[in-house]
Amino acid sequence: DKAILTLQSGLLFEHHVIHELLARHHGQYELSYWRTKQGQEVDLIVEYKARVIALEIKNTSKPRPEDFKGLEAFRKQARCDRSYLICNINRPQKFSNGTALPWRQIDSVF
Description:
Layout: H1 2-7, H2 9-25, E1 30-35, E2 41-48, E3 51-57, H3 69-77, E4 82-87, E5 93-95, E6 98-102
Parallel strand pairs: 3-4, 4-6
Antiparallel strand pairs: 1-2, 2-3, 5-6
């Protein structure tokens, strides 16, 4: 049903990006996620060559500063070498609290 796909587009997009990473770099890093009891979360924590990279994945073509809240919380509580908002845009966008990257450029974070 088309309505179900529309409602689940964020989750489907997140799974697509994670599967792309797994297909391209299988076994090269450890993947996890982060979530607090208060509900703050980061979709993907990548441990790669002694680096910790936090990725928030949003199915949006119009990223907003609020989309970085989980990444900001994670950076305050854990070691984080880099963090990015991965979304459905054509080119990177800088915000005062982070950088949004097109999902097709996800390899550039490593």
